[in-house]
Amino acid sequence: MASVSPSPSCSTIPTPVRRSPRAAFAVAELRRLKHRRSLPPVSVGLGHVADVVRHDVEFLKNKIGIGIKWANEAFRVPEVKKTAEELFWLRHLEDHVSPPLEPPSWPQPSYSGLSGVDLFMADVKALEAYAGYIYCLSKLWSRPLPEVYDPQAVADYFNCRPHVVAFRLLEVFSTFMIAAIRLRTSASDKGKNLEASGQTFGIVLKETMLHLGPTFIKVGQSLSTRPDLIGTEVSKALSELHDRIPPFPWPEAVKIIEEELGAPVESFFSHFSQETVAAASFGQVYRGRTLDGLDVAVKVQRPDLRHAVLRDIYILRLGLGVLRKIAKRENDIRVYADELGKGLAGELDFTLEAANASEFRDAHSRFSYIRAPKVYQHLTRKRVLTMEWMVGESPTDLISISTGCSDHDSESHEREKLEARRSLLDLVNKGVEATLVQLLDTGILHADPHPGNLRYTTSRQIGFLDFGLVCRMERKHQLAMLASIVHIVNGDWASLVEALTDMDVIKAGVNTRRFTMDLEYALGEVELKNGIPDIEFTKVLSKILKVALNYQLRMPPYFTLVLRSLACLEGLAAAGDPNFKTFEAAYPFVVQKLLTENSTATRKILHSAVLDRKKEFRWERVALFLSKNSTRKRWPLVISSRDETSVHSSSNQTGSDVDTVSLVLKLLASKDGVVFRRLLMAANGTSLIRTFISKEANVIRQKLCTTIADTLYQWMVGVFGIKSLKFISLSDPPPSSRTNITVEDFKTLIRDKRVRVILRKILESAKTDRVLMLRFCWTSFVMSLTTSALACHRFVISVSEGYVNYLSMSAPVAIRT
Hints:
By secondary structure, this protein is mostly helical. Mean pLDDT is 76; it is low at 1-17, 633-658, 733-739 and 813-817.
């Protein structure tokens, strides 16, 4: 039988089967499962699970973020959100041109002798009154928030919108609850130390303040200036609230600028950076260049800011009202919320800030170390402020550099740290000086000098920014503040109560004797260091405030702003130098002002400080005054650290003592010595002479002899022409102090008729006591002999040394060897 070969069409070679994508995926999954079963089991730890979960969460966040971005663009979510916000705040009902409404008058009921028609007409009038009342209520919904803070207008606005207040309260409560849970969770980690826990608390608190908005950010900024109260780590975290707040988008800023200026940005600026230089609680700053080529800083207000700020102030006012009822206080503590509201509402109007800046600049233009930027009025509106660009370093940057550490190039890093520390201490010293000038001289006080609002310029000036909160003090309040500082140092509590009365802290009807006792109990425990209270000025004011609140007294508005300003300053000083004391730095300024300002009020303060009721000097206070005034002469020039200064001063204590005597002699004949001469004329001359010849004044007499001997030595050198001889080279005598009196000064002092009148008056008042005059003449004679002996001894020694040096230099080399 013949075999038949198979045809190609009947071949047994398998042909590939076409599968659907779903079937192919199923086959691939089966193969992957078989491969996984063939692999040995692998142990999976909790760390691996956490990593997988974290990667999955990041993947989901990324994809969800992409989806949200697409939804915002596709469904116009921002526009819908803005419309919903308008409906939430009921802004579509506001009428900005509505005239002020007068409350409707209610009809008085009267029924005697009325007919039915009369009653009907009365009902019609009542219905008319009710209709007017309902119309008035309906108009309240259309009234916008006031431009100037008015508690009643703000209350009327939010009374019509209770849902806004309720949602805000819920938001605040939930935010703080979440923060508490985060802190509790982080505290359960036992491996964290105290520093790490403080850092965590600061970060959580900063994020909470950021989430709650501008008003809470302002509170956080104030807290960040007090590291002595809240701790260094918390203060460091909150300090980021000064200029590191998340900015709002650039298109919104451009829209606000164009709405306020009425034209595109390009028509006013040749260059305008789209990156924010700094973002603050109420606005953010951009750098630009005008068409004239001037570099400027443009501050743009955050959108919809007024509603959010005044809402929080209204809630704070409600809370203080509830607290007042619970505590059963007679005085209305809601005024503190009103003062805060006035300040914050003023900061919302940039035209007011521009006026404050110009006034501050003009008032302090005569002080070379104070700088304020110039305002460009033609580029400034209510929500846009354009000022001169100020180049300088922030105190926060100086602190971070001076306290930072680095392993690379340690020598250059240490040099940079030293320079930053010197700049920071110079900034602190000039900050104290500037604050005292504002507080006691010009009366225009920058009430918010936190590190974000200060700059240390390249010309070693202290620059001030952000003038939204400025305190203006009356002259009587300045003098009362000056007197209170002196009375606190002297421990004169009765006079301090009088000064507080002049400051409008103590009102009429208060038991001043009992108030004085409570004040002495609160401040009597303050320790003194070199005659100066060893305590921060803000703590003293806080103690005074606490005593005043116990008497249910209301603090004047400026007092709160002064306390805020000094708190910011002392916080910065504590960061720069933990040993810094405001009283120690401020008292020389106070003393110099009292000794140089010739006015009735300052003379009264000075007399009450250094004279008793018998017109006799309180010498311990006089010595403190003169020593601090001599310190004041060189205090503004201090750039080195306070530790170095203290060492230098301790090594030259004798020179400082003689400096005080020289200062007195110079004041007697100088133009600035008017107050001092009047003080000597008002004093008891007999007491002066008796004190001068006493044993306790022996040190003063020695200093006076040394000073006069130095002057007499200079006169002898000039008279005998020793310096003109070429064969004698006299070394200059080491000056005992920077204010060493010269021969010309001494001649001026002797020839001055005013000094003669003072001496004659003192001697005439002591003429009746002949024993006292005899002792005074003997003491003067001994002092004259001592002074002449010292001067002649010094002159002979100087000539001898000069002649010996000349002989040794002119002798032959062979003889000298």
